[in-house]
UniProtKB/TrEMBL annotation, chain A:
Regions that span the bilayer: 88-109, 121-143, 189-219, 245-266
Keyword terms of this UniProt record: Cell membrane, Membrane, Transmembrane, Transmembrane helix, Transport
Domain of life: Bacteria
InterPro entries hit by this protein: MetI-like, MetI-like_sf
Cell compartments where the protein resides: Cell membrane
Residue ranges annotated for the ABC transmembrane type-1 domain, each copy included: 79-267
Principal location: membrane
A matching Pfam family: BPD_transp_1
Topology with respect to the bilayer: Multi-pass membrane protein
Protein name per Swiss-Prot or TrEMBL: Sulfonate transport system permease protein
Gene Ontology cellular-component terms listed: plasma membrane
Family in the record: Belongs to the binding-protein-dependent transport system permease family.
UniProtKB/TrEMBL annotation, chain B:
ABC transporter domain ranges (all copies): 3-230
Broad enzyme group: translocase
InterPro entries: AAA+_ATPase (IPR003593), ABC_transporter-like_ATP-bd (IPR003439), ABC_transporter-like_CS (IPR017871), ABC_transporter_ATP-bind (IPR050166), P-loop_NTPase (IPR027417)
GO MF, one example: ATP binding
E.C. number(s) listed in UniProt: 7.6.2.9
Designated name of the protein: Carnitine transport ATP-binding protein OpuCA
Organism: Anoxybacteroides tepidamans
Keyword annotations from UniProtKB, A to Z: ATP-binding, Nucleotide-binding, Transport
Reaction(s) catalysed (UniProt annotation): a quaternary ammonium(out) + ATP + H2O = a quaternary ammonium(in) + ADP + phosphate + H(+)
């Protein structure tokens, strides 16, 4: 998105272009500043706490100790194994849930009958917190990978489905009319008009789902798992290994940020045609 | 390519918008349909395009009844309706591509139409990066690239400023002279209709009120005395 704008400006106003590119880069670097400050203050406070014991220092360790502990865990191999299996679970569950959601939404948008039968049922079962269903899934599917993946897919499904359906319904009818009068057939209307113009809604739904899917992942790993970040937390609680717990918590945050970043990149690539928002409304 | 409408009636919200329209458009003719806002001219265009169906009466193209949109009737919309996720060139190539022309050939064809409207250097821009007049030119090129037999234009210059609008009119006449498509052009602007049309059809109260043949040579001049007389004449018919 930024790229196209910059490219366009380049051809018209060379001088203002260089200024803008620089400003944007600086802003990007500044984004790390609050995060760095957060860790510095955390370190400072917990180091003081180790001397003055405002709270029990074992419960509230400094980031440096967490980092060292994380390195030890990594050397033992548990950490890599856990991050890997968590990543695989969330990836498979999320992709399955999102794909099903888009397919069902397209069918519902296409056939009134399917919408008539499915909408009330989805409205009824959609709001049930997925976590309430986990024990049921474990009884149904055992304690292997399947209940975890099903739970993640289930959580991902609803936000993506409702957002996609909403997007399909708000496709500008002029686009469809214009495509039809240019000779497009029905399947082309889907691939060339409805899906591209619904993409922003699908992405919005995916973003909502990503957060929910992470909760589903961690909780499912807390119940009947032998590895994974959620497992480390439960294990740490059982044996009072506070540092391990912090390592897992920080890693969950990092992993979520990683997925969110990948998402942003995909979105930027797919939706490069979109220009809007305050950023483009007013120049500052 | 002849377009014919016989006794076309259409209701909207329990109000009879069109009360029996009869129309005959000859090949290569440039017809303007003139009417005031809410007078059913856009409804008529949607009927001709096949987007909506008449309650009574029939619309035929070359003797075949119109039942759905088709590539033989290209449409230019007032809001241009360019696909924002495609670049200018991809927008114009859309018609040929969905009609089964191989991609490279379609893009080449699109480039020719882009040259026709003089926007080659914007081929890889997105519609949102263009001005209103440029967007509408792309809209016209896109409709032409679908190689329709008849071009339906729904107040295409209605949203443009006066200066751009006048440029667009002469541009359209230039394109029409070059390709000679049949055009049905909807407008509420009398001067625009007189500038463009071979024939003006005035729609009032849901029926064809009056028809005027315009025999002025092109390019027409807004300040020509004959031009002014025609406008006044149509204005009289239009108002009462």
């Amino acid at each position: 998105m930024e790229n196209t704008i910059i490219k366009q400006e380049k051809s018209y106003a060379v001088s203002s272009n260089t200024k803008k590119e620089k400003g944007w880069d600086l802003q990007k670097q500044l984004q790390a500043l609050p995060i760095i400050m957060f860790f510095i203050i955390w370190e400072g406070f917990t180091r003081l706490n180790m001397h003055f014991s405002f709270v029990n220092p074992v419960f509230f360790p400094p980031p440096s100790l967490i980092l060292i502990n994380g390195w030890e865990l990594y050397k033992s191999g548990i950490l890599f194994q856990s991050v890997l299996s968590s990543t695989i679970r969330i990836f498979i569950g999320f992709v399955l849930g999102a794909s099903f959601a888009v397919i069902i939404a397209l069918l519902m948008g296409r056939m009134k009958k399917i919408e008539f039968w499915f909408t009330p049922i989805f409205n009824m079962i959609g709001p049930i917190p997925a976590l309430a269903l986990l024990p049921l899934f474990i009884i149904w599917f055992g304690i292997g990978e399947i209940p975890k993946i099903v739970l993640i897919a289930w959580t991902t499904f609803f936000p993506v489905m409702t957002n996609t359906l909403d997007g399909i319904k708000s496709v500008n009818s002029s686009f469809i009319r214009s495509a039809l009068s240019l000779g497009a057939k029905e399947h082309q209307i889907y691939t060339k008009i409805i899906i591209p113009s619904t993409l922003p809604s699908i992405m919005a739904g995916c973003q909502i789902s990503l957060g929910l899917a992470f909760s589903a992942l961690i909780v499912s790993e807390m119940m009947g798992a032998k590895n994974g970040l959620g497992y480390i937390i439960v294990d740490a609680r059982n044996y009072m290994k506070m540092l391990n717990m912090y390592v897992a918590i920080v890693l969950i945050g990092l992993e979520y940020s990683f997925f969110a970043l990948v998402f942003k990149l995909i979105e930027k690539k797919l939706l490069s045609w979109r220009i809007g928002g305050f950023h483009h409304a007013v120049e500052k | 390519m002849t377009l014919m409408a016989e006794g076309v009636k259409k209701c909207y919200n329990n109000r009879l918008v069109l009360k029996g329209i009869n129309l005959l458009v000859e090949p290569h003719e440039f017809v303007c349909i003139l009417g005031n806002s809410g007078g059913g001219k856009s409804t008529l265009l949607n009927l001709l395009a096949g987007f909506i169906k008449p309650d009574e009466g029939v619309i035929k193209v070359n003797g075949v009844k119109v039942t759905q949109p088709s590539k033989e009737r290209g449409v230019v919309f007032q809001d241009h309706a360019l696909f924002p996720w495609y670049t200018v060139i991809e927008n114009i190539a859309f018609g040929p591509i969905v009609q089964g022309v191989p991609k490279q050939e379609a893009l080449k064809k699109a480039m020719n139409y882009l040259k026709l409207i003089g926007l080659q250097e914007y081929a890889y821009h997105y519609p949102m990066q263009l001005s209103g007049g440029m967007k509408q030119r792309v809209g016209i090129a896109r409709a032409l690239a679908g190689e329709p037999e008849i071009l339906l234009m729904d107040e295409p210059f209605g949203a443009l400023d006066l200066f751009t609008r006048e440029n667009m009119r002469s541009e359209l006449i230039r394109i029409w002279n070059e390709l000679k498509p049949t055009i049905i052009f909807i407008t509420h602007d009398i001067a625009e209709a007189v500038y463009l049309a071979d024939r003006i059809i005035v729609i009032r109260n849901g029926v064809v009120a009056v028809e005027n043949k315009i025999d002025l040579p092109r390019p027409r001049n807004y300040h020509d005395p004959e031009f002014r007389i025609l406008i006044e004449e149509i204005e009289k018919n239009f108002m009462n």
